[in-house]
Description:
- The structure is a single chain.
- The protein is of the alpha/beta class.
- It contains 17 helices and 22 strands.
- Strands 8-9-10-11-12-13 form a six-stranded mixed beta sheet, covered by helices on one side. The protein has a six-stranded parallel beta sheet with strand order 17-22-21-18-20-19, sandwiched between helices.
- The protein starts with a strand and ends with a helix.
- Residues 345-498 form the Helicase C-terminal domain.
Amino acid sequence: MEYFVSYYDYYQPEAYVPSSDTFIEKDASINDHIEQMRLSATKALLERKDAIIVTTVSCIYGLGSPETYLRMVMHIDRGDKLDQRALLRRLADLQYTRNDMDFARATFRVRGDVIDIYPAESDLEAIRIELFDDEVESLSAFDPLTGEVIRKLPRFTFYPKSHYVTPRETLVEAMENIKVELQERLEYLRSQNKLVEAQRLEQRTRFDLEMMLELGYCNGIENYSRYLSGRPSGAPPPTLFDYLPADALLVIDESHVSVPQVGAMYKGDRSRKETLVEYGFRLPSALDNRPMRFDEWEAISPQTIFVSATPGNYEAEHAGRIVEQVVRPTGLVDPQIEIRPALTQVDDLLSEIHKRAALEERVLVTTLTKRMSEDLTDYLSDHGVRVRYLHSDIDTVERVEIIRDLRLGTFDVLVGINLLREGLDMPEVSLVAILDADKEGFLRSDRSLIQTIGRAARNLNGRAILYADRITGSMERAIGETERRREKQIAFNLEHGITPKGVFKDVADIMEGATVPGSRSKKRKGMAKAAEENARYENELRSPSEINKRIRQLEEKMYQLARDLEFEAAAQMRDEIGKLRERLLAV
């Protein structure tokens, strides 16, 4: 089981704003642990037939070519004849660095005839090569912390530090092709009297070429991926899909949301890159460093299972076979649905909340706007209800804490807009209230209504109330589908003698991998105080040099927080940096 997601804690793509003649340099903070997991994922795909990879839509973004990647792999068997210097040079080609003091991932150390190598894709084991007279006498895996030998190995395969590593001969050939394109582009820009753009492009590209010649890579090397991968202009970039075997199976969860995301990535990336090319910051070939287009994704996708409680039109049109998994082994049926008048929805809701709170059950309420969710929260709170709201302005970590607190009974009611849908699994919720259910639109479409109603399907007493003055087409379809599923489950229960049972889920499940409950609240108070001090300090900044200095200071703090896995605090720093950059553009 492997994990492949974006490895950026913070990512600011390079961009150019022509109106203010402002170039924003690419800035990123890579999470070392996630990078290790990405390398481990591709290694598993290349070596095993039983690999399961959990990924996000980031899998359609460019990755190093698997053909080039495999050409850089180094195999070592016990008994091999090896020249130590040649071995160390080979490790340098894999972008490993020698460090006899700090033994970390993608480094190696040499002690006489013993070479310790910490594989780039490993987080638990390092490899020890013991030589005798230029022969591999022993090959073993050991604990990099204690030095204890875990097991002896007959052979081992070392993979490069990065997916973008390139053989020297390919790199030299790519550099020649880059020079040819550079010359053609410079001639074009000068013919258009774009002398500043030509000078800028030549300076930036020649610097990159010099870095590639000396180090084997440069910052932003992915912008030359067309030449490094040997693919023609306009060809789809190599991605994680290129590492999949021919008989792979793709399972897309919540496909009605995931599939549209695939198509949305290409256009935003394209418009930003076209500006960079037009103003001489990048060669036209940089446009080939992009996510896959939707048609390219369709062409490369293996056999696919779309999983969704509310499949979209795309799934319906492309599915060769539809399999319903409506019945639950617990016997739980979908919630009963009531329609009540919208005119008295708030007072009626308050009455229902008091009933559920007395039974120690929870309530979800969905509104149409952020302002309405906040106003409703204030109103319910004024009437003695323990209530919180949840919307897009609340960061991811805090959202998880809010959901945990709801399940623990810290409060009884959660008010939201569009976040109380897919993925929320809360058996304690017995009532879902949908305000203004008759307002047709994205938030009140049949799919949205079915997803929201389904949040009460984990509770034995589940019920959904739709407040509306008329029954819309979306409401009719959502109610009809929910009733169909109810009837199917009830018939199944009767046929098999099943008595519905409530679901019991440990609250700790939802916070797995996070900190101990309660520990973050103290940190948040400290961070809130720090944020207030930061805000006062930022207001005193006046000149561009002062703002730039402050940005650099905050960036250092942000990277340190990310290294310490304090992602919430790092995100706050990132937001502060974003505000300062906006001020810098306005100065």
